[in-house]
Design brief:
Blueprint (H helix, E strand, L loop, with lengths): L1 H28 L2 H20 L10 E6 L6 E6 L1 E3 L3 E5 L7 H9 L1 E6 L2 E12 H4 L5 H10 L3 E7 L6
Antiparallel strand pairs: 1-2, 1-5, 3-4, 4-7, 5-6, 6-7
Helix pairs in contact: 1-2
Length: 163
């Protein structure tokens, strides 16, 4: 019984380590097929888990609401956003070729829920991460290096959202 439990736990740990290694390799090599697997996994599992708390006070993740460029439906995607001089910065670990980023550019705006506050944002712009990386926490900067993140999205506050 103890041996079976030990083997089960070892199998879980090895599986988790293998998955994390796969994610790191996918992110660093930018392999389209590998990134597709990671994105589908995150969409099916990780994002659903984060949506419950994303955007609330004290949560690490924010929630970006965007309108589908083809469907017209409203979607919510958990992201990590940091305040900037006139808006927010969002690191793009998968690059700009994701549906939510394409949706934001197509609409020219999005709604960000972060720290329990709602912000209307507009004028999306791709910015090299190296130019704005200092705006992110040391922990986030380490993650950016580890995963080879090179791009970020800047969204500026809309007129109705100015303090």
């Amino acid at each position: 019984m103890v041996r079976r439990l030990f083997l089960f736990i070892c199998t879980l740990v090895l599986g988790l380590v293998a998955w994390l290694m796969f994610v790191v390799v996918a992110m660093r090599t930018r392999s389209a097929s590998m990134l597709g697997i990671v994105r589908r996994f995150n969409r099916a599992f990780t994002n659903k888990l984060q949506r419950g708390s994303a955007g609330t006070a004290g949560a690490n993740a924010s929630l970006i609401q965007h309108r589908g460029r083809k469907s017209g439906l409203t979607y919510e995607t958990p992201i990590v956003a940091v305040a900037d001089d006139d808006g927010f910065l969002i690191a793009l670990p998968y690059g700009a070729d994701t549906d939510w980023v394409k949706n934001v550019f197509a609409a020219g705006s999005a709604v960000l829920i972060t720290g329990g506050e709602v912000h209307t944002l507009a004028r999306p712009e791709l910015v090299p991460l190296v130019a704005v990386n200092a705006s992110f926490s040391a922990r986030e900067q380490n993650m950016h290096r580890w995963f080879g993140v090179e791009e970020s999205l800047r969204l500026r506050r809309g007129e109705a959202d100015r303090p």
